Structures are given as C-alpha cells and as structure tokens.
C-alpha cells in the first residue's frame, strides 16, 4: 500500500487542472483508467483530418486562463473564430438562436410565433407554470416557438421528455430572450451568446489538455489504472494494481459512478443520455461560412453537426455529427451511420462528395439530466463525501451543464480552498 497526500481520479481537464494547481513535485497521483489523457477532450487524426471526440470549441471569458494555456502550446496555430451557427428548418437556414430570429420564418409561421410569444407574457394574461424545463419553454416563448424548435431540438439532444428536467437545467447556456429583444432583432441583428467567439488549435482540443499536463509530473499520471473501490472510513483507493491511502481525493468521475465506488446506493435520481458522435471526412468541400448547424426535424437522426474544415479553411469537408440516445439504449452504430449519411444527403450537406475517412465514439454519459431531485441529492452527498476528504468536481462530478473553462475555474477554486494551490496566473 502506498501513502499519498492527494489522489486524483481522472486525467481529463478537471483532474489535470487540479494537479497543475498543486504544482510539480507535489505528493499526488492521478489514476486514469484509459490508456490516454484527455477524457472526452481526446483528438483523433486520420487521413489528414483532425477530429475530437465531439465538437470541443473553447469559449474563454477570462483572458488570463487562455493566455496561461497558450504559453504552454509553443508553435501551435490557434485561431480565434467569430461563430457562425444556424438552424436547418423546413428547407431554410435560420440564424441561431431561433427565438430571436422568427422573422426569418415563412410569414404564416412568423405570425404564429409572434402571436403566441406575445400572449404567453402579455400583461393581464395568467402566468403559466414553470415547474420544469418544458413548462418554462411554453411559459416564456409560447406554443409555436416551443414546438417548432425548442422542444424537438432539446428532446433530440437530451433524449428524454423535457418535463423531467429542472427549469434551469441549462443555466447560463440557455439563450433567453424577451419580447423586446426579439422585436429589436428584426431590425438590428444581435445574436451574441456566451460562445459568440471561440478558439481552436490546429492540433485539436488535445493541445489544451497537453498544455495542462505540461505542468504535471509525468510519473504522477498512472494510465490504465482506474479505481475499483474507495473505502471512505480508511481513506483507501483500490485499483487492480495497487492500494493507495490518501489524505484527500479529487474526482471528476460521473457522480453515480463515484457513489458506487464508495459503496453508496444509486437510484433513479441520476439519469443522463448517450451521444453517438460520427467524425466524417470527405474528398471535397461542402457548405462554407458555417461552423455548426442545429436540426429540430425529428425525421433526421442527428441534432447537431459541425464543420471542422471551416475553422482552418480546409479544402475537404470535415464533420462531426451528434446523435442522442437514452442512457439504456443499445446503439447500432452501423445502422445509425447509414441513417446519418442519408440524412446529410436529404438536407443537402452531402451532394457529390465521397466519404474517405470516418471515426465514431459513444459518449456515455453525455448530457446529464438536471432535476430538482438531483440538485438536492448532489448537495447532500457532496457534503458527506467532502467530510471524508473526497471532493467531486467537473461536468459529471458536479452533475451540471458547464463549459471547459468552468471546469478549469472549479478545479483551481477547490485547490485554493483546500490550501494546496501554488501561485499561477489563474488567480484574479
């Protein structure tokens, strides 16, 4: 058995940020069950194409974080891009977000949307309930906007009935807009959102991961060694290779998986979806001046596609395509691939181009289902675990909807709170 001050479970963004905050030479071990670092930020290179496990574009609100990362990426071309995103709707390309651009719809549909929007919030009208995510959409945007885009798109994304989700399940990432915003947008477009610009390195998202890893002692990262159990009372992590007694443990594992490792019961409080991601490379160029497109049409299997080639002006179309599935679904990758290619042709994304390279990966979990019950239980269980020196962070460890930058900020904040963080430029 080995005695270690700090054990970190997972060598993704959250785990590596925590380790970097502790500094090289610290008494820390990172246990990563995969054979590579990066978590869901891994990058695949094939036949001249560069793909991530999914579309990981970086939206930095704090320039000091981006500067810190870039300083550790010498020679890497990084582009800052003004996002161009659209919605494919009934043969039209509508600017995103849908609710601010209803004036781009056919006249009859525009009138329906504007009418329902006004009377959903009109003075003197009874206020509709907002007890869950679906009710919130109806109450704030009216039936037409909700049913034309917001509900079908998000049900494809989350692969669940939106009535099961908390009203604020997407937090600051949901593009809210009131009647004034929407009417003003008809004359003077303002579609800015939290990800209005993004940065992306030529080598893929893994380059940001490598930047974090550069501040971690390589010998501290144990690849192919995942935790099998955690004894909270004795503060021992057991793997297939060894046992480690710790003073503190930081984990970004999915929260229900963490509970199982600790011998805690897991019930239906915790639900999520799976996402099958196809990375597709073609022999010719496709649509230009677009970075990603949203698809509310339920006859199409995918809810979103993105164009890597339009970031670096590549000569060949390079796509990621995302398909949502319930957490308990058995995914037929080959069948879904055929449906995806057919859908891309029907929507006009593929015309004469030939597929020359491909890759797929199932992300499970992908999007967690945030409910009032999960929020309440998360707070209680995290406090109990923390009292035993176990701290859960990250999108899956904190069971939330967040950005990669949020993961970096959260990990750094935890290290600071525990009194472990070394001085580095992520401080305000």
Q: What is the element layout, followed by pairings?
A:
Blueprint: E1 2-9, H1 13-22, E2 28-32, E3 43-46, E4 49-52, H2 63-70, E5 78-82, E6 85-89, E7 92-95, H3 107-121, H4 133-158, H5 179-185, E8 197-201, H6 206-213, E9 221-223, E10 227-231, E11 236-239, E12 243-251, H7 255-261, E13 273-282, E14 292-294, E15 304-307, E16 318-326, H8 333-346, E17 355-363, H9 372-386, E18 390-392, H10 394-397, H11 404-417
Describe the structure.
It is a single chain. The protein is an alpha/beta fold. It folds into three domains: 2-42 and 203-266 and 370-417, FAD/NAD(P)-binding domain; 85-185, Orthogonal Bundle (protoporphyrinogen ix oxidase, domain 3); 273-363, Alpha-Beta Plaits. Helices cover 30% and strands 23% of the residues. The protein is built from eleven helices and 18 strands. Strands 1, 2, 9, 10, 11, 12 and 18 form a seven-stranded mixed β-sheet that branches. Strands 7-6-14-15-16-13-17 form a seven-stranded mixed β-sheet. The chain has a two-stranded antiparallel ribbon with strand order 3-4. Strand 10 (227-231) and strand 11 form a beta hairpin. The relative contact order is 0.20.
